[in-house]
Write a structure and sequence with these properties.
heterotrimer, A alpha/beta (481), B alpha/beta (437), C alpha/beta (258), B: 437 residues, alpha/beta, 2 domains, 10-stranded mixed sheet, 20 strands, globular, C: 258 residues, Rossmann fold, 6-stranded mixed sheet, 28% strand, Fe-S_cluster_assembly_SufBD (chain B), SUF_FeS_clus_asmbl_SufD (chain B), Fe-S cluster assembly protein SufD (chain B), SUF_FeS_clus_asmbl_SufBD_sf (chain B), SUF_FeS_clus_asmbl_SufB (chain A)
Chain lengths: 481, 437, 258
Amino acid sequence: MAYTEEELKKELETKEYEYGFYTDIESDTFPVGLNEDIVRAISKKKEEPEWMTDWRLEAFRVWKEMEEPEWANVKYKKPDFQAISYYSAPSKKPKYDSLDEVDPELLDTFKKLGISLDEQKKLAGVAVDVVMDSVSVATTFKKTLAEKGIIFCSISEAIREYPELVKKYIGTVVPRKDNFYAALNSAVFSDGSFCYIPKGVRCPMELSTYFRINQAGTGQFERTLVIADEGSYVSYLEGCTAPMRDENQLHAAVVELIALDDAEIKYSTVQNWFPGDKEGKGGVFNFVTKRGICETNAKISWTQVETGSAVTWKYPSCVLKGDNSIGEFYSIAVTNNYQQADTGTKMIHLGRNTKSTIISKGISAGKSQNSYRGLVQINGRAENARNFSQCDSLLMGNECGAHTFPYIEAKNKTAQIEHEATTSKIGEDQIFYCNQRGIDTEKAIALIVNGFSKEVLNKLPMEFAVEAQKLLEISLEGSVG
Amino acid sequence: MDLKDKLVSSFMAFENTVDVNHPVHEVRSEAIKNFETLGFPSKKMESWKYTSLKSILKPQLSVFPKKETSLDYKDVKQYFIHEIESYKIVFVDGVYSSHLSETSHEGLDVCLMSAALSKPKYRLLIENYFNKIAVKDGLTSLNTAFSKEGAFINIPRGVVVEKPIQILHFTTGVESSLLTQPRNLVVVGENAHVQIIERHQSLTDNPTFTNCVTEIFANKRGIVDYYKIQNDRDEASLIDNTYISQQRNSHVSVHTFSLGGKLTRNNLQFFQKGEYLDSTLKGVTITDKKQHVDHSTLVHHAQPNCESHQDYKGIYADKSTGVFNGQIIVEKEAQKTNGFQQSNNILLDDTATINAKPQLEIFADDVRCSHGCTIGQLDDEALLYLRSRGIPKKEATALLMFGFANNVLESVKIPQLKQRITKLIASKLGVNLGFDL
Amino acid sequence: MAGNTETDMLKIKNLHASVEGKEILKGINLEVNPGEVHAIMGPNGSGKSTLASVIAGNEDFEVTDGTIELEGEELNELAPEERAHQGVFLSFQYPVEIPGVTVTNFMKTAINETRKARGLEEMPANEMLKKIREKSELLEIDRKFLSRSLNEGFSGGEKKRNEIFQMAMMEPKLAILDETDSGLDIDALKVVANGVNRLKTPQNATIVITHYQRLLDYIVPDHVHVLLNGKIVKSGGKELALELEEKGYDWIKQEAAV
């Protein structure tokens, strides 16, 4: 074999963060630190009604009493929550009717991100809401969506324009006191996306949000709320990037999905926050709470490709409340260098005949640690609940770790649960076989990793799958000499 | 005074009953300090998430038996595997019963911990092995602090022990609040083979609580087969801590049959310290009423080219709870490890619960590790098939459960023991199967 | 076996190779000309598969002496994929499984990587499709088979047929078939042999490694070599294979011992 572990290691070290650049747009940033005044100021800045301000303040009070969780299999220096600026918005707050009005420098940023808005608009028919440094910048395709009664806007706008909907659902899936980061987010979230699909409507295009941290020393706390009314369908894409910085940046988002009777939500994420450099310096702390609730016959499907962030703490979950509801979780998590990921899902089976599927693929390289943590809970009332879980780990090199922590709790005799986990490495015989067919080792590894991840890649919408595949290659290949 | 404080203060009284100049006493003193700091485990601890000791940690528990109780062999014969020749080490309420025992010092030592602690000729062995692999958590420290009696088994190099060794711990319940803490040590020399059967048995329906610690050392090419029969009465609770250290090319298997008892927690931990060895952990658990059985296993792979096999089958009825918390750790050095773990569970009633947490923690890349965990029911079609052949439902169900547990029973190497366990399982399931499995 | 150096396809001189310090090949000399089919036979453990692996560049084996030349160019220092780019193809005795990678995607990658190495453009999609269709028909391969994961869950016969399909796709100069007949029933054997024969041109050459004569009824060799204990101890025409079938290897062993 031409390819030794040493070489692999070297190759992985030389990998560069493709999206590491900084766009110079003037930002309007709050002073650092967090107290009730800052919470009030955020709320005021966003011209929020009083109930929202109170809701935030209550969350802040809850948060103050909470402690940062320590159970995850990750080690990091805890962020100083008083050293972060909790609000940063591009100063010329734009309200565009068309993309032509958008700051060309910003558009350039999007191009570097590979999400050229206008291109997507024409080709893919994707409606995009871009959240940059926590403020929603542009939403395209509003008109087309409006004709169907679909609301797709920033959460700030939703709080002003559709307060009844927001009030009814916000915090119902992820309560303010759910966990430390959820409480923090509830107090200080600056923006995010809101989506409502009316009864019986099938959203004609993929809805998409890109999140990006731009300003140094800021935290990003976006809040996403997706409501699929009875019998509706929506596919939602979320992409994330942040520029290279020495210090750690904090990202603590909350995503709530509500799938009412017979509704279906597909939520796909490609997360590529800055993972830190090869010495483990910098990078994003990604502490995210994502959860969906399924009413009768509803279905929520989470698909994620996680290649970025220095530390990830993320468990997109489904509460299968209604009978016959379905939860799915498909995940690829790649860690390299000093990255640490503790990610997985919770499937809470409450209703009868509920079904859940978990497919998790972890790939660890460098000195990284990659953990799957999942909970499958079958409650007493959940007759005939089914779960199938499969967690596969691939290790590259001998300085990384792959861990599996599944929790399985069953309280109903009709439950059927199957959990399988395997750990493997890329076989030298596999590489030699590829070599013999004229494929060099770097390409062979990419091919094998793609094959390993295929069951999950297949669940992504087409354009996203291509991007995800590219990201996998970048994350693991770099440039071999 | 709460139980912890009471036990800590009992230590001084305990010191009057042992030789405080023996080096082991330093270990005990260290351990009581440790227990004082750590106390009893609570559900807040990740490893005790699914098991609460609240119901059995009664403040009146005492570590001192007030009087000796003697038993007649005929009254307890049923608890021995009497169909075979064997060595026997028997304790009643933690006190050695010489007339029920059959020990030996001929070419091997099958005797008492108290003897090993008092005789100078064992001092080196004790120094080398006593408390060397026992994990220093609260419960094990508590046992270490009060350790003075239990089985001591020393098989010298090259000795193949022809007859199995039975260790029986009886509790009479004459004193209802007795906390017994047997401490066993098994040292198996190079190329030596031994089979051990262990049983804890309460003789009345009074509540009893046993916190047992066993350390097993298997040297190069040693073979140890250890069988645990847990078929105690409804009010008997057991924390069974077993720590095993293995050297190169050794084979150690532990089978645990958990059928009775109120609360049973098995902490079974394997530490692999040489290459080319294998560890086997198997168990059958069948529970009903309000029983709670927790299997917490750890296999620590620290050397290359080793294997581990875990296979646990559980059947839970009524309001009983099963816990399987299996952990495999593969260190960076442990390349070419093969680690397998399987946990299959059946819930018979909606009021029964199973909590499983099969964990893999892997730091080496060239390994094959897998775990599988299933929760399900008996196959309805198979049941129908059996019934259509004239087998009544109850027997058909039992037959299917036997089939389910068979993998584990199959690997019991002592035929008479296998037969006995089969009978115990049949009686647990309330059936009389007209054949031997 | 006097060969003309200018026209030699493969020339192996005094090849020694060992694995973990144990010498397996102990001085192999072999010349193969374009258009020829050579059979290498020998009992188990004689070094047949090692020879195939060493030609393909498997680095589990250490070449301690000797040279391997393809069309006059030495291969010794080349990586396995570079040898493949030069036109060496090995049909594996035990093809490896690669989960999640379809036969089609694998071939696309292999062909385009090879073209890239030869300074050619990627093969246009329609041309690729046409070729896949054509070659899969040649080997009587069901199209559905092509979208399955490479070798995963394939039967023994399917794996071997897939190897020859890949050979057809890659059009190598030198194809080495390592025990391609093992695990094949007679119908599959005919299909595979037929495929190999139809791919034969005056410009390429084939080395068939086999334990039994059976395959040679269908792929008729120009030369037969007997490998014993790491050396070629006897060479002859196709009749040698028949003789071996009839008499076994013992007489060769005796002859070689003398």
